[in-house]
Amino acid sequence: MKILLKNTTLLDMVGNEPNIRKTDILIDEDEISKIEENIEDEEAQVIDIKENLVMPGFVNTHTHLAMSIFRGYKDDQKLMDWLENAIFPVEDKLRPDDIYWNTFLSCIELIKTGTTTFNDMYFGMDKTIQAAEESGLRGVIAWSITDTSIKDKIERTREYHQKYNYPDSKIKIYVSAHAPYSCNPDTIKLCVDLAKELNTGIHIHLAETLQEQAIIKDRYNKTGTEYLNDLHVFDVPVVLAHGIYISDNDLKILKKIKGGISHNPISNCKLSSGICDVTKLRKNGINVGLGTDGIGSTTTLDMFEEMKTAAYLQKINTMEPTSINAYEILKMATIEGARVLGLDRKIGTIEVGKKADMIIINTDKTHLYPENDLCTNLVYSANGADVDTVIINGKVIMQNRKLLNINEKHVKKNIAKVVKRLL
Ligand SMILES: [Zn+2]
Hints:
Layout: E1 2-11, E2 20-28, E3 31-36, E4 45-48, E5 53-56, E6 58-63, H1 79-91, H2 96-112, E7 115-122, H3 125-135, E8 138-145, H4 150-164, E9 171-173, E10 175-177, H5 185-198, E11 202-206, H6 210-220, H7 224-230, E12 238-242, H8 248-254, E13 259-263, H9 265-270, H10 278-283, E14 288-290, H11 303-318, H12 326-333, H13 335-340, E15 358-361, H14 374-381, E16 387-392, E17 395-399, E18 402-403, H15 408-422
Parallel strand pairs: 1-4, 1-5, 6-7, 7-8, 8-9, 8-10, 10-11, 11-12, 12-13, 13-14
Antiparallel strand pairs: 1-2, 2-3, 5-15, 15-16, 16-17, 17-18
Helix pairs in contact: 2-3, 2-15, 4-5, 11-12, 11-14, 12-14
This protein binds zinc ion.
């Protein structure tokens, strides 16, 4: 199957400066096979982009998709109070089918706002995989491991890794140790051993709140980063969610990691967690991607909102408006996020030979006019509803804002049943 995108305005996200040009793009099966003007191909399905923008799909580097039912549920609390009193009691009652429907709702939201790859940590991995596959998304998926029922979670991780560990798989299995405060040294060691055995990475929350830092200091007399370093977590690639409280010594340790940090600006604001010093981390050569975190601690899964908030937080944190620019924020949402997940050779830019994960943005909007600078319009003025068409792995998933193979009404009907039973 070939798709020919005619008359595109392409922002390819290659290089350190924006490269915007008029061109055609040919997709052959799952890959981008040609980027040049005036391509003709009789076998291809032609889509006229009408000069609208084509760019790589967004990479959401940290989320918990099954938490969609917690949108607006017992909001405006401290993180630990909210988790212990509102979230954990409901999560204990979640059935596998609930996880499937909750995740599916999030998958729809991701697609409709331009995300093509997500990195998820939760339980019920099989149901998350099912929803990802049926919706068409690319996903890195991990079973969140804490100090309880470890053996079973390790076994499941191993089982699904074996099943999905083939070269062109859209599903990549990671090991997830939940966080330094919820995983004792033995649990962390088991996770490291498993990641080494499977030749994969570890997804973990780190340095999200001052309270967490105090707990780790009290237990081990070290920072969260030092705790993980001493347990050899950084021997394998990592995705570190949040990374707000980083000492100078932590920074030295993190300079050497493979993978990177997932910055979740809206979650950090909503829970008063603090501000991740993205500017400093990036200056030190550490990859920083953007993530939404789960619904509840964030507001939506719209990466446009995260981009805007990330930019504003850096500007206010440094009191310096030049600290980060719109193109750098776009990189964090695409290629840098892909690098954090170890997927940068496959996705994150639009180049010949890469997987065809791309979004088309309708730029003919009042709030995007005039277009003095495309990148600043995207970061500061656009929103998820401007995404018109989504292509993942060479397949059109949404066209003219219509989901082609997903019945959104049916998903919402099932979510309503879960909400009625649990909330
Ligand atoms: Zn999280």
